[in-house]
Design goal:
- With about 240 residues, the chain is an alpha/beta fold.
- The N and C termini lie far apart (about 50 Å).
- The relative contact order is 0.13.
Length: about 240
């Protein structure tokens, strides 16, 4: 049986993916800050889901919590890091910027490091990070959020390069969702908004195919291609 941990499964994409993996025979461990939501997820799953409650911003607590889940699962084959925060913060309030950086950069990197150390020790595994289409360019309405997701995507590329040079069969998947109907989807003018269920299905497909990159939903690849080459003179007026 495959063993998976999803960091950030209290709600949204993480919760839907946990249920989907469980239905496909995975033994799943989930984390989040809200113990009651994790207990509800475990209680309503048709498969095996266990949980540990902690805040990814507390890297020491996360180390202990992930270690406990790995031990309870009897090992780890797949780690999905879905935890994250985002704020519309055009006024550049520092507390919102600080929280975004702490969770999306430091918390993410600490979780990824724990997973990769385990995978390197056993010589195999699969690390998945939920980044964002926002990773492609800076954003004036949410500078820290876009920058933090750029960190996630570049860190994942660095890990892919690292394991490729070692010649190890460790997969890394950088998932870049567009708008998904969760609490993270903020602001006006949202379009192509996917349900968490649809997003989870496409992410599961990317996991099964061991893709290095995946846009969710797939049509966002078109936006990505445009964003990469859009001149600053045009981008700055959007």
């Amino acid at each position: 049986m495959n063993r998976a941990i999803i960091v950030g499964a209290s709600s949204g994409i993480g919760r839907e993916l946990a249920m989907l993996l469980s239905r496909h025979g995975y033994s799943v461990g989930v984390t989040g800050r809200r113990r009651d939501l994790l207990a509800d997820l475990a209680g309503n799953s048709s498969g095996s889901i266990i949980y540990e409650a902690f805040d990814v911003a507390d890297t020491n607590a996360m180390q202990r919590g992930l270690a406990a889940l790995i031990e309870r699962l009897g090992g780890l084959d797949l780690l999905v890091i879905s935890a994250g925060v985002g704020h519309i913060n055009a006024d550049l309030g520092w507390e919102a910027e600080r929280e975004t950086i702490t969770v999306n950069v430091e918390g993410f990197a600490a979780a990824a490091n724990i997973g990769m150390q385990d995978f390197l020790a056993q010589g195999t595994g699969h690390l998945v990070a939920i980044s964002s289409i926002a990773a492609l360019r800076g954003g004036g309405d949410a500078p820290a959020y876009n920058a933090s997701k750029a960190f996630v995507s570049n860190y994942m590329e660095g890990l892919r390069h690292n394991v490729a040079r070692r010649g190890l069969p460790i997969a890394t998947t950088d998932v870049r969702p567009g708008f998904v109907n969760t609490a993270m989807a903020k602001g006006d003018g949202l379009f192509w908004v996917a349900s968490p269920e649809k997003a989870a299905k496409q992410i599961y497909g990317a996991i099964c195919a061991r893709k290095s990159h995946a846009y969710v939903t797939k049509r966002w690849r078109l936006v990505a291609a445009l964003m990469k080459f859009l001149p600053n003179s045009i981008y700055d007026r959007l």
